[in-house]
Amino acid sequence: xxxxxxxxxxxxxxxxxxxxxxxxxxxxxxxxxxxxxxxxxxxxxxxxxxxxxxxxxxxxxxxxxxxxxxxxxxxxxxxxxxxxxxxxxxxxxxxxxxxxxxxxxxxxxxxxxxxxxxxxxxxxxxxxxxxxxxxxxxxxxxx
Length: 143
What we know:
The chain is mostly helical. The protein is built from six helices and no strands.
């Protein structure tokens, strides 16, 4: 009985695809998922990205909320990342997440107010955040 139902379902699906004239290829689905991922992350990071401007004191709560929203997007989008790139994507996500969750107003203010006290070769925490965001978003770039 179950076998008959599966055959019927396959025929109906094939008929509807032929009749309505659409079936998405993997590349089309990936392009749509990439666009949604990129736009969603940029929207979540409004005020933090693309321009690392003056972040107000107490920005940490807003950034943590954005990171939790982005985590959901990452989990959904990961399935569209080619298997050969998944470990690099996971690494980019982990670097972004760890830096974003540990970023504080004190770190940003200290870098700006006391640049001579920072370690030699250290970067502005906002610039590091920007770079890690770019690295994560490169997986949602147009293909």
